């Protein structure tokens, strides 16, 4: 069932189109992620839903009611920003109570709601502290609780974790997912971080140049990208013109193959699979995985495998067989590949013939 409907949302600034006829349906209790590079329009779309930006055209319908003409305060929407925007002279409890006090609620009711919100974000023991006494992660949880306490119909989150360091961001990501599941609150999160999108989103809309390029669950977006932009933005896929490998050209003439590095198996061949012979160009250990760059008849392939307890892996210059199941290869309409720059790699003046080196200008 559609809970939030965006129908033909358009916006432009100074003659530049920022949102180009955006259509989107978000289900009740869904965590929907808007994912894309800086400048693609995702924050403008979020602010349009909140009423902070007035789009040039289109409809915004929440719970069957058109809200496009309503001021932000009457839309029943909560918003959490990248920067916490907490009142520095107030305690955590006072920050949460402020919005309820503006609604002239009884003190007893305000107290109950604030206590419940503090418990939800696990900050009861920080209730009497002021923002300068809190860590960045704690401040962001206060900002989230301040929005939750107002019991919005829809929660909008504008890159709420981007200002935090990696470890805190990972912990808060898990906390945010728990809170959203427990409350059942329909939410839209904006991010440019693909890991964040894949871990949090029930569905993801990938945006580029003011348009939604593809909407689907994480598996759809990752394994079956709609085009080369999505394939390049999500994951670290091999993007190969089928004509570059003879067997691919026979299988899917005029198509481009998308192959995820971890789908390629080393040292095996099998039926119903693309079987290749490759030479190792580079090998590097990255935590629990080994990353290879391999050459297949002049075509570079990125391959990723798990490390073993013995730490054994193929060295540069060695050869091995590769296989990838046909069902793990996704084909899209052929895309233009710059001459001499295939799959993000290009020959260098110092490379042996047929050996490709990383294109550092990518």
UniProtKB/TrEMBL annotation:
UniProt keyword Nucleotide-binding, yes or no = yes
Molecular function per GO:
ATP binding; ATP hydrolysis activity
Protein keywords: ATP-binding, Nucleotide-binding, Transport
Q: Describe the location of the ABC transporter domain by residue ranges.
A: 4-234
An example GO biological process term is: quaternary ammonium group transport
Family matches, as Pfam families: ABC_tran
PANTHER family with a match to the protein in the record: SPERMIDINE/PUTRESCINE IMPORT ATP-BINDING PROTEIN POTA, SPERMIDINE_PUTRESCINE IMPORT ATP-BINDING PROTEIN POTA
Give the similarity note: Belongs to the ABC transporter superfamily.
Q: What is this protein called?
A: ABC transporter ATP-binding protein
Native species of this protein?
Answer: Phyllobacterium phragmitis
